[in-house]
Design brief:
By secondary structure, this protein is of the alpha+beta class. A 5-stranded mixed beta sheet has the order 3-11-10-9-4. The protein has a 4-stranded mixed beta sheet with strand order 7-6-5-8. Strand 9 and strand 10 form a beta hairpin. Bound molecules: pterin cytosine dinucleotide (MCN).
Length: 729
Amino acid sequence: MPGVIAVWTGEDLATEWQGSLPCAWPVTEDIRMPTHWPVARGEVRHVGEAVAVVVAETRAQAKDAAEAVSVAYEDLPVVVDAEEALREGAPLVHADLGTNQCYTWTLSAGDVDRVFSEAPVVVKERYYHPRLIPNAIEPRGAIAVPVPAQGEFTLYSATQIPHILKTALTAFTMANMPESKLRVIAPDVGGGFGSKLNVYAEEAMVLAAARRTGRPVKWVEERQENYLSTIQGRDVYQDVELAATEEGKLLGVRAHLVADMGAYLQLVTPGIPLLGAFLYHGVYTPEAYDFRCTGVFTNKPPTDAYRGAGRPEATYAIERAMDALARRVGKDPAEIRRMNFMPPFTEPTDVVSGLKYDSGDYAKQLDRALELVGYDQLRKEQAERRARGDVKQLGIGLSTYIEMCGLAPSQVLSALRYAAGGWDAATIRCLPTGKVVVVTGTSPHGQGHVTTWSQIVADELGVPVEDVEVLHGDTAVSPLGMDTYGSRSLAVGGVALHFAAQKVIAKARRIAAHELEVAEEDLDYEAGRFTVRGAPDRARTIPEIAFSAWTAHDLPPDTEPGLEATHVYDPGNFTFPSGAHVCVVEVDTETGATEIVRYVAVDDCGNVINPMIVEGQVHGGITQGIAEALFEEGLYDDHGNLRTGGMTEYLVPAAADVPSYELDRTVTPSSTNPLGVKGIGEAGTIAAPPAVINAVVDALSHLGVTDVGKPATPERVWRAIQQAKGGGA
Ligand code: MCN
């Protein structure tokens, strides 16, 4: 066809690969890891898997030619549901593996069986987390450019992980492409939400195509492709049990999961449920804990990290189950939480699942949230509406969440069998003109690192924020980094920057002391200025010292010219942001429609660098959580076809669908790092779904409704009401 340069099948491209697309998280020793070629060979396992590559002069020509590719498919049996896939005789997604079970991972602490058999109260709940389809404003895209003079390739990709992408692609997938010959550039990336934390087939394909054609090759995903071929989130069944006393004191937590991996393992697919595995007891203090997750293959696109990754599932389970416990023992949801909270603490504190929470004051957050929302007044109004039998009933939902982020101590990652480290790096280069260049290993895609990193450096080195230039997202410019995900960037990359600043200050102090002819100890330092103690007029600023370090005319003995420092920081612990969210809804008992009328969030992310950015993160996070609770659901038919392949079927909320949020914060500095900061990038998404669903159930509980399912669409809510009434709808 016109303009076509090349057409290849999976077999044609076989020599381009040394192996599979990588999965970096084999969570158990006996995990089953299927082969995953960038382009299918012989068998296709989910709709959206690439079967051929077409390269043409223009996008339109390539699209036309791709449509003309004719594929001879022979139908194979399909399994789309994870629990079905575990049944005896279910079609096998990978016949060579002999089973659809990918792995089973367990964690147990305390005498679980005894606690559950002796407890006077046991609450059993079952929840399902639907498939979520990430919708970054900018879909994925990649351009591979051969650089013949250097025998290398530059890959521009809309990725969250330029560093990991470079290493993983060259270590596992691309044949004959040394890591030193690949440069990855992630320019301004329009959102990712976890979906761009991956090594994708298309990235390997554009590299292969550029190598074969000797020309730059570009691929940009369209929204519908995004729905078919980008990783997806959640798709987990949970059986959750709480053991408690008659008063509602929590004694034990059991959570058994069946998690849908999809047809293949992408970069961190199997590990996602494990990121929540330690958090199913939330901010409470049971003595026994039991977690089990079975990962399962189905004929659907792979799941992987999606904002919150494992922690929304854990938070939903415990926060919904705590409400169920409250109903069972006849207590108010606020009261049941208060009587089970960990007491306030400021130092690392052991919890039953084996983690050490860094700091927290959970009761204070709840008190503040209830005060802001006017809890007692709302309960009164709720009672009045119930008494009147109003069509629109009021519901109040709580979520007193905790999450673990700031990924991650490398040794803990090793214990969890993750294949890389959790450190990050920062370089500060003080230029002779007084300007400062920061090179960071994080890779922002909407989180504002340029702003907050500039603030950290401006504060510590006393230079104007405008004078700080932050460079990121190019492996040739910032060779060291572990990128952005898991709300890690401030707590790891930002802390690395703090340590680099300390190194710069230490060197500058040596030079200042030499120039001022005093001992280093006789210098005071504040906001970029060294002064001689007792003679404050004798001073040197960081820019002045940067200049003398550059001229190197008169440096102390054994001092290298230049004022620059790099620090690579490996955190000693995670950080544990927490908070109390209260959602107030009106549910129309005739139509099942839910309207969120108030949403109050009191979050604690330790010390805050930039309050406006933190608020923005919380806003976006809550909106994404509300979307999960009320709107989003990826559905497949029995043949594995996506039934919600666009935004007319897969609903995402618009601005008018969410209220103005009422936010506040408490501050318990993290004991993990010297800045006392905790992450905030995912908190809202983790906290919001149970707050919303608890509110919907609360609005209808007097009718006998105890669950509505996610998303709580008007139809689902209406059916729950009819069922509670005995209508059996
Ligand atoms: N911050 C702060 N003070 C704190 C905590 C954070 O000022 N105590 C600032 C940080 O300096 C940073 C921002 O808040 O500018 C977020 O920091 P952090 O919590 O460290 O999270 P990351 O930067 O590592 O971002 C990752 C996180 C994740 S995992 C997802 S998913 C997500 C999210 O961020 N995807 C996003 N937020 C997103 N926001 C946008 N716009 N787009 C995405 O794709």
